[in-house]
Amino acid sequence: MKDTFKHKGLRQQLVNVLKAKGITDANVLNAIGKIPRHLFMDSGFLDHAYQDKAFPIAADQTISQPYTVAFQSELLQVKKGDKILEIGTGSGYQTAVLCELGAKVFSIERQQELFKKTSKFLPKLGYRAKKLIFGDGYKGLVDEAPFESIIVTAGAPFVPKPLLSQLKMGGRLVIPVGDDVQTMTMFTRKGQKEFSQEEFGEFRFVPLLEDKN
Ligand code: SAH
Q1: Where are the beta strands (DSSP E) in 70-181?
Q2: For 195, which of 15, 72, 159, 187 could close a Cys bridge (C-beta 3.0–4.6 Å)?
Q3: In the CATH scheme, what is the homologous superfamily, with its name and number, of domain 5-203?
Q4: Is 73 part of the annotated catalytic residue set?
Q5: Which of 68, 209, 211 is the best mutation target for the ligand 1 pocket, counting ligand atoms within 8 Å of the beta carbon and taking the most?
Q6: Mutate to test the pocket of ligand 1, among 208, 212, 213 (most ligand atoms within 8 A of CB)
Q7: Domain segments of the chain as ranges
Q8: What is the pLDDT along the chain (213 residues), one digit of tens a residue?
């Protein structure tokens, strides 16, 4: 697991690309400038690691495009110590970004193969999520609720009710909603049953599937 000056240089270029695309949160840019994304990918794709593109990982899943990771992370407005639930651990790259931002991260993955792989890999890089869970993200994580924010990193055909009800007052749910194409949507909890809703354009994710595998 090597991280060289060449990788660092490529990462800085990626940060500049993200700035040019409109990402402004200095902490998010700093996290992306620090995390060795190439180590989250299969060796065949190492050369592509610092392009602003999604790439295949195990179990027919993808590591999200850096712009998408940055965009969702920025919407969360993470403060140190925030308790955050991530749905779709995948490669663990987004998890690592949240750890860099100082969050206490809980992350759920439904594919056992990825869950196992990423559970071993993240601590090797020094990223310690509070808990990685093999389970169905549609249900959220009632035992650890409420959360300052919840981030869904797969395309949801609808907004799962448990996720809304597991938000703290003032908490945010950032979720791409739709079938083939998703609209990035943010819900902010305003009251027991009141939520405000904002939309932020179209993205494409692998689907949020029910149950675990
Ligand atoms: N955050 C990841 C993105 C991975 S792609 C990264 O940075 O690499 C989305 C992930 O969501 C896949 O790993 C997929 O298996 C997972 N997923 C899909 N449906 C799920 C569900 N119901 N619960 C938990 N994870 C789910």
Answers
A1: 83-87, 104-109, 131-134, 147-152, 167-177
A2: 187
A3: Vaccinia Virus protein VP39 (3.40.50.150)
A4: no
A5: 209
A6: 208
A7: 5-203
A8: 689 999 999 999 999 999 999 999 999 999 999 999 999 998 777 778 999 999 998 888 999 999 999 999 999 999 999 999 999 999 999 999 999 999 999 999 999 999 999 999 999 999 999 999 999 999 999 999 999 999 999 999 999 999 999 999 999 999 999 999 999 999 999 999 999 999 999 999 999 999 878
